[in-house]
Design goal:
Blueprint (H helix, E strand, L loop, with lengths): L12 E4 L2 E4 H5 L3 E6 L6 H12 L1 H6 L2 E7 L3 H15 L7 E3 L4 H5 L14 E6 L5 E7 L7 H17 L13 E2 L6 H7 L5 E4 L2 E4 L3
Parallel strand pairs: 3-4, 4-5
Antiparallel strand pairs: 1-2, 3-6, 6-7, 8-10, 9-10
Helix pairs in contact: 2-4
């Protein structure tokens, strides 16, 4: 199944390290950072689980719930979490989905046969409170994710939703943003009374809070 930006994130019910959950019900009114791993007790995955745990406060400040997945059982996840906590000096509390029969991994197209027939690649889905997929990223098994980029893009998505703006290349919180071409004339003046710079008619830069 190929999922696209703007699609409703497929709901599923699965066992996790925090009990059985249904994605949509568990997400509630929060954003979700849903990410997959090839396997428990593997080095890159261990560092990524630890990093996600250490970012629990920044995720919570953005109303984001992390949700991990690998194609192992809950019993293996729980043993692995002890290793993650010990080696990464953290206290992992977010749920990790157990998917030994690959049901969720196949639903979200996380199995790439040229990498593995049984282990998920490093997929990322950012899902908004309306259960819409807002961003997808896929990393190979041997490359860890950039968590600064994950937080940055969540900030950009949330800012864009709040202010009807777009963000330029390498945007960081506090940088100028772009007024979309769809916002014209008096609508632009009303929406952005602070004004804007206009190096080209199609490129209007402004600041928002």
């Amino acid at each position: 199944m190929s999922l696209h930006i703007g699609d409703t994130a497929p709901d599923f019910t699965a066992d996790t390290t925090k009990g059985r959950i249904s994605l949509h019900e568990w997400a509630g009114g929060s954003w979700v950072f849903f990410f997959s791993h090839p396997a428990d007790f593997t080095p890159v995955c261990t560092t990524e689980m630890g990093k996600t745990s250490k970012l629990s406060e920044p995720f919570a400040a953005r109303n984001v719930k992390p949700l991990g997945l690998s194609t192992d059982h809950v019993s293996e996840h729980l043993k692995w979490i002890a290793d993650v906590n010990d080696t990464q000096q953290t206290d992992l509390q977010f749920p990790i989905v157990a998917d030994p029969d690959l049901t969720v991994a196949k639903l979200y197209d996380m199995i790439h046969p040229n990498q593995s027939d049984t282990a998920a690649v490093r997929s990322v889905f950012i899902i908004d409170p309306n259960k819409k997929i807002r961003l997808t990223m896929t990393y190979p098994m041997n490359v860890g994710r950039n968590f600064e980029e994950i937080l940055r893009v969540i900030d950009a998505l949330q800012l864009a939703d709040k202010h009807r703006v777009a963000t330029p290349a390498d945007w960081r919180a506090g940088d100028k943003v772009i007024i979309p071409l769809s916002v014209k004339g008096e609508d632009a003046v009303k929406a952005f009374p602070q004004g804007w710079d206009e190096p080209r008619p199609y490129l209007r830069l402004t600041t928002v809070k």
